[in-house]
Amino acid sequence: MADIRNNFIGIKSPNPFWLASAPPTDKAYNVERAFKAGWGGVVWKTLGEEGPPVVNVNGPRYGAIWGADRRLLGLNNIELITDRDLQTNLREMKQVKMNWPDRALIASIMVPCVEESWKAILPLVEETGADGIELNFGCPHGMSERGMGAAVGQVPEYIEMVVRWCKQYTRMPVITKLTPNVTDVRKPARAAKAGGTDAVSLINTVNSITSVNLDTFSPEPSIDGKGSHGGYCGPAVKPMALHMVAEIARDGETRGLPISGIGGVTTWRDAAEFMALGAGNVQVCTAAMTYGFKIVQEMIAGLENWMDEKGHRSLDDIVGRATPNVTDWQYLNLNYIAKAHIDQEACIKCGRCHIACEDTSHQAITSMVDGARHFEVMEDECVGCNLCVNVCPVEGCITMVPLEVGVLDQRTGKPVSPNYANWTTHPNNPMAKVAAE
Amino acid sequence: MATGHFKDGIADNRLAPETYADNFSDLHPPLDHHEALVEADRCYFCYDAPCMTACPTSIDIPMFIRQIATGNPLGSAKTIFDQNILGGMCARVCPTETLCEEACVREAAEGKPVQIGRLQRYATDVAMEEEKQFYKRAALTGKRVAVIGAGPAGLAAAHRLARHGHDVIIFEAKPKSGGLNEYGIAAYKSTDDFAQAEVDYVTAIGGIDIRNDMALGRDVQLSDLVQSYDAVFLGMGLGGINALKADGEDAKGVENAVEFISVLRQTGDLAKLPIGRRVVVIGGGMTAIDAGVQSKLLGAEDVTICYRRGKEDMNASGFEQDLAAANGVTIRHWLQPKRVISHNGKVTAIELEYTAMKDGKLAGTGELLTLPADQVFKAIGQTLVPAALNGSSASVELENGRIKVDAEGRTSMAKVWAGGDCIRGGEDLTVTSVAQGRDAAESIHRAFTSNGRA
Q1: Percent of chain B scored above 90 by pLDDT?
Q2: pLDDT attached to residue B388
Q3: Which of B34, B43, B44 best probes binding to A when mutated, by most A CB atoms within 10 angstroms?
Q4: Does residue A430 sit within a domain?
Q5: What is the rounded CA–CA span in Å between residue A253 and residue A9?
Q6: ipTM of this model?
């Protein structure tokens, strides 16, 4: 049986599934329910400094986009950090940690970018018995207008400075949460590392407007006819999050820096993908907000089952396994040739592969053969682009089959080379490095 | 004395009064907004969609479903009406399980096609409830076309002709328009007087003058119409009924299924419509099912449909056969009528002979079966009454008892087109009749314009 116990920068939890700092972790009631359902840890909803609590809008806080059957694909929010009194949160955190000593409890913090503020709050948090802190440098709306959240996360120098303060004023491990609203996520990650962070977590939410009300011409979510950009999350952001995790995992300066992966984790498979790209664990929010806390049970069982099937004994066996396979385009093997293949037994003859290929790609799929509706790949035209696979509604019906070495590629009329060859040495590349004579 | 189901002979009020409305309510209730969106999301927007190919009127089904899904039901309705102005009725009565929904790729994938018929009804209902008219007549041409029959073929032809700016005069034999939509379909397929609402919707374009109680051969003659109109479209359907060819079929209680259905459709209070305690229906098509099921719904205790061939030979679709079974109607195969047994001139039983295929031909085996019956419905097909076409100097050529037409719907007679059930090759489907009426109208329009006369 696979062992999915998680040790993330010394913080132990029975599984690698944490709830991200967000509405589901705003108070003891929710967190207790989450732990009962089986979540390995929670990052408590972001605490602000002592004083009058933050206020939220009193209209809609969330907007969304949906796929077929109104499956929620992306969620956006304009909620701020916790709007409850700091002392109430601290009291509840302490009690919950006492009730659930085996679960991870992390405090997310966002206070003004001045040393005194951080110095003041850290001992209060430490007193709760929390296992660590997460610095919220990602929240893209509202708080960022006040010089906090993403406003800090977008300036590497500020990140490094605040992380340094935190490392100075607390013994608790520090996780630095990064915003994706930057052009190169490696820069803030490097800054966090330079400041001494124990880990980074990413991604926070993406600046977004989910839709526009075409009756009122107000962006959604609409507050009295006006809208403000919110933070976007959910399945739709997962590919961007995976990319950013991988970039940090393979960057020369940050390689080895522990990463808590966040962004659209909905199933065990998503979690396994984040971990394979280098995340030591994952944080989840939108999936729980869509389906409730019970989904963690599917994640646990699915991850265990997959690890058992593949013979992975612990999370260490999978974390970072895909990282070395992330490379630059210029190093991809141009001698690798694949062709689409349509399983005629599985084909339901919707024709989407044909029209996608015909209208928008390489005219490599038939629609009619001998007068009958029939969809088949023409190998002499197929460039192996994979579009047909992606538009086919039947999973596994169309597959990409690599050509064996020596087999004739009917499109080019040349046999498949056994050698790896990439752009750096390609004759069409004016910058090509001349291969040894 | 026995009451209700058990009253002997043919009697009314077999059921509790409140039961009738339930029994004859909508067979496929309309999808509500949420249901329509969920169902529309299932469409894959196929390339050269098989559903569209399977539709006799070639409605762009993926497009109209996508328009529902994107919150544009009026646009969806227009997509439907562009091809089929009777899309509302077709949504209700089409045997979708043998047309678009059979071809749906999700039928192949999961055995659960997209419910195209119900989505079509959703969109057309929205447009018709809003009385949204999508078409304006072209500049008037001064051409006048006589149309025989205000059924699906005639209405479709009339609408298309009116759109092109021609004036249409429809001669309809019955007091109400709609043809089989009004008189011939099971009541639970066309509730709330939909056939009349649809006639109003179609004729709202203008330029269509319907004259009811005007029958061809009786009140108007083809030879006169050809003289006084620029073109004639024949869409009068089939007025005759096949005989049982069984002894004693003139006994009281032996009736035509189409007549029974017609009376039922025109009956306000169905409790007052008498029905036999034991009913036998002879036939294997949609009409047999419609008659059998409605007999049961009127309170007949025992209803049996007898068909002379096997299940797979029945014209009624699998869905219709299941509908009959679900309503407690028994379908028996390989039985042909032999003799109607009567007492005091009233039917009491029917004697049937078992059949089998012998040397590729259907033949009686000599073995007999007697089923008690208070009422026997004949549903063994309808025929064209050619007498109505007489009166013209040059006669319209027939083939296999129906009017012979070419691919455009032209008959052998100049200026005369035909479509719907009365033509050779008619499939006896509303949707096919609509396609033929529409296409004949286009042909007429081309004839008007090709030599520069219009």
Answers
A1: 89
A2: 80
A3: B44
A4: no
A5: 18
A6: 0.90
Q: Which tens digit of pLDDT belongs to each residue from A82-98? A: 999 999 999 999 999 99
Asked if A243 reaches chain B (Cβ–Cβ under 8 Å), the answer is no
| pTM, full prediction | 0.92
* Residue A139 annotated to the active site: yes
Residue A433 resides in a domain: no
**Inter-chain contact A69–B46, Cβ cutoff 8 Å?**
no
Q: Are residues A223 and A316 in the same domain?
A: yes
Share of chain A above pLDDT 90, in %: 95
Domains assigned to chain B? 33-129 (1.10.1060.10), 144-238+384-450 (3.50.50.60), 241-381 (3.50.50.60)
Considering only alpha carbons, which residue of chain B is nearest residue A368? B48
- Does residue A407 form part of some domain? yes
Asked whether the beta carbons of residue B44 and residue A69 sit closer than 8 angstroms, the reply is no
- Do residue A350 and residue B37 have CB atoms under 8 angstroms apart? no
Structure tokens at B266: 């025109």
Out of A351, A393, A394, the one facing B47 most closely (by C-beta) is A351
Supply the CATH number for residue A378's domain: 3.30.70.20
Q: What is the 3-state secondary structure (H, E, C) of A230-295?
A: EEEECHHHHHHHHHHHHHHHHCCCCCCCCEEEECCCCCHHHHHHHHHCCCCEEEECHHHHHHCCCH
Measured between beta carbons, the chain B residues lying within 8 angstroms of A350 are: 44, 46-47, 105
Tell me, yes or no, whether A437 lies in a domain: no
Distance CA B92, CA B118 (A): 8
pLDDT at residue number A436:
52
Question: 């329009």: which residue's tokens?
Answer: B445
Q: Are A281 and A20 in contact (CB under 8 A)?
A: no
Give the number of A-B residue pairs with CB atoms closer than 8 Å.
38
Angle at B17 between CA B15 and CA B22, to 5 degrees: 85
- Domain boundary (A325, A349, A375) is at A325
Q: Are residues A353 and A321 in the same domain?
A: no
Nearest to A367 among B38, B42, B48 (CB): B48
A57, pLDDT greater than 90: yes
Residue reference for tokens 């033949």: B363
Q: What is the pLDDT of residues B259-284, one digit of tens each?
A: 999 999 999 999 999 999 999 999 99
Cβ–Cβ contact B394 with A under 8 A: no
B61 touches A: beta carbon within 8 Å: no
Asked if A346 has any chain B CB less than 8 Å from its own CB, the reply is no
Range of the domain at A409: 329-425
Percent helix, strand and coil across chain B, each to the nearest 5: 40, 20, 40
pLDDT at B246: 87
Mutate to test the interface with B, among A66, A343, A348 (most CBs of B within 10 A): A348
Range B38-56 average pLDDT: 97
Q: How far apart are CA A324 and CA A249, in angstroms?
A: 9
Whether residue A337 sits in one domain with residue A320? no
Contacts of B204 (CB under 8 A, 6+ apart): B131, B133
- Interface contact flag, A367 B47, Cβ < 8 Å: yes
Q: Does B44 touch chain A (CB under 8 A)?
A: yes
Q: Using a CB-CB distance cutoff of 8 angstroms, which residues of chain A are in contact with residue B109? A: 348, 393-394
DSSP bridge partners of A108: A134
Query: What residues of chain B lie within 8 A of the CB of A66, using their CB?
Result: none
Q: How many domains does chain A have?
A: 2
Which among B38, B45, B108 has CB closest to A349?
A: B108
Q: How far is B28 from chain A (nearest CA, A)?
A: 22
pLDDT tens, residue by residue, B343-363: 999 999 999 999 999 999 999
Same domain assignment for residues A92 and A135: yes
How much is the mean pLDDT over chain A? 96
